[in-house]
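This part of the workshop introduces the protein records we will be handling. An example says more than a description, so a record of this kind follows.
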Amino acid sequence: MMQMLGSFAEFERSMVRERTRAGLAPARDRGVKLGRPGKLTGQQQQEVIRTVRDGSKTAADAARLFGLHRSNITRLLARVGNRKVAMPALLLARPLGIWIVFERWQNRKSSSLGLRE
C-alpha cells in the first residue's frame, strides 16, 4: 500500500516538474526576468563601480553605504570585469606593539594612512 502511495507521489512530482519547465521556456522566450530582484538599482550599481574603481571607497565601505555584504559588491565588480578590487589596508607586522599598515592600491594618498605631511 505504501509503495503505491509513493509511486503516485513520484508521478505527481514528475508532472509538476514537467509543467513548470513547459511554462518557463515560453516565459524566457518572451524575455521575462526570472529570479530574485537585485538589491541595487542600475544607478546605484554604477555609483559603486565608479567609487571602488577610482579608489575613493573600498568594497567594504561601499557595501556599508548601501546596506549590503562586501561579497555582493565584489560579485558586482567581477561581473562587470573589474576583478581588481580596492583592498583594505594589508596588515604586515606588529613590532613594539604598533601595527604597521601598508596600502595595497595606488590611488591613495599618505593622508589616508593617518600620516601628516
The chain has two domains: 1-35, 42-113. The longest helix spans residues 2-30.
